[in-house]
């Protein structure tokens, strides 16, 4: 059964994804949940919680309020907190029980916005999807609501879309992304969403191209395309693949056409195949880099929901532990989070690549900066 | 580098002098913050105390992740499995079916059948009106060699009833089957930490020829089942009381609740209750009191007038501890808690009258996120949350009262305070780790 798991972990879910994406933007995120969502998020999905304040709270939903449909308490509590803390925006996030009982979050958001004057919106999570969906939709909502109208483009400027610690937990990752782009002659207009605040993101409409460095950034890229006509390129600048990506950025700036570069991967007639498991854009980019650097085949096993158009020929979508275990039976060399070792056949050459969105902080001390893997 | 939100807020609603505080809820129930302090045990840690048992959870992905990684961080992934619920289960009414088939599938995938399965159903099962007895009937029928333990991860119920923690401390001991009583054997139920062998309770039992059995000392499932052989059951931890009493009744034995506390009279009363139950002579508290007084005096000499902050995770009786320290001249400036336990009502009222300026500080109120943490003064924190909120490296790294009990417990806590006052700890490294006392790969 694909939904039963004997031993491996599960990916960060949509609720935590929203929190991670919005963490540094000065808003207030309220998870309508009895207990546990906030603790799970800040313990296992959020590396910044200890050192960096962010207004992320749960509602403490009780059984009686859920049964009686007492939304007034949620509204009152959010309004009270917002008046004290004065966030830039309020994001409402849904856990499984309010999803099941059909709480009207759109209406609640309108009421809160009317009462507080603070932009308030709902991200339709339910705790049953992975982080890419939640984080992606959160960034897309920022793109819809907060990016200022702009008719002018800043030449050779780029927004980095889809940067959260869930995929970029390695030390210095954000600095590396900036450095690589700047060395390629690009100015980073904004980084969604680490290291920049809401005001920086509001200027994103002036960028010439958007670079989607993880699938988390794809939904926002589509919104920015629609609003500002900005083309996007999908890929992460890793190793030898960086040159491919830079060329794609140049082309996109010139043609205005989108490109999914992370599926641009050389194929070789024989030799061993390297199998990577994880988020399709970062792992696809790494697979391309490995293929170029080592002149071998590389393929991606994608355990996440958002993969349409992001996988190269030969890549596989895997469902659950059973799917992963079956796919790994044929693997020769594996690059993946160390937890996958638990279901990997003996004799496979396994290279650890801890992924925050899978193993949380279990391997935080050995977390790698993807952009510096080949240095 | 610490990045703080600069929004200026008042302390109103998050900090209150004890004299003005309401009992039992000094702070309004509103949105909740969760501090990066995780040393207290959760249901995964507690469940792992049952040897040779497999925990299987059935819930949505978001709720699942916290418990999976709790097991992973304590290097116990091989004893933790799960089944994921999806939207279609809610719509199609297949939650019972997926629970039964999923759990059965997990069991068949395990290298061998576990002696016991601790199956955790969740809020969704409850709200959908799932037939929980049917689920267990089916599973017990399919796997007659496995003991199934009915566990819950349903925090939505905890504001109006028992917490998942309390329910688990009942459920796990429901695995015990009636056995003939073994003379001079006493079993402690529901504690995560072994009672210290130097604690007055353990000493009293040992000196009178009694064997004290505790789950923390069980290596095998057979050891665990043998806990049922006690002629008397004890519990000392508040969350254990309900389950211990129920299980003692089910097994036809007496139960005594002898909570960890700080009042000399209360400690003596508990020891006399135990003595009476075992037909032993009355307990003489004189030596214990003298030892506690000496320990407190030694600690006061060292700590002097340095401010002390206590939190509610360090011990079930934070106000009792504050009272004890204040009675002995210490400068207790704050107690971090979010509710006042019924067991602390007397201590609360004592503090209202005798230490009216003592501050009660909320830990989950939203302002707890942004209010200043710590100042220039050296603060001795008793507990992990107090350490984080006071931003101090001088803290007693303990949760849930650990194994402290009685006058000896006071002496041991004083020793920990003295050590904490002299030696800096790495707060950022220690307090985010889950389940203090368990293995941690972090």
Number of domains of chain A: 3
Main beta sheet of chain B = 6 strands, mixed
The share of residues in helices of chain A is 25-40%
Please name the CATH architecture of the largest domain in chain A.
3-Layer(aba) Sandwich
Tell me the greatest interface.
A-B, 70 and 66 residues
Sheet with most strands: strand arrangement of chain B: 1-12-11-10-13-14
Assembly status: heterodimer
Q: How much helical structure, as a percent, in the residues of chain B?
A: 25-40%
Q: Classify the fold: give the CATH topology of the largest domain in chain A.
A: Rossmann fold
> In what range is the share of β-strand residues of chain A?
15-25%
The low-confidence runs of chain B, each spanning 5 or more residues with pLDDT under 50, are none
CATH-wise, what's the superfamily of the largest domain in chain A?
Nitrogenase molybdenum iron protein domain
Count of helical regions of chain B: 17
Strand content bin of chain B: 5-15%
What's the alpha carbon Rg of chain A, rounded to whole Å? 21 Å
Helix-and-strand structural type of chain A: alpha/beta
User: Structural class given helices, strands, pairing of chain B?
Assistant: alpha/beta
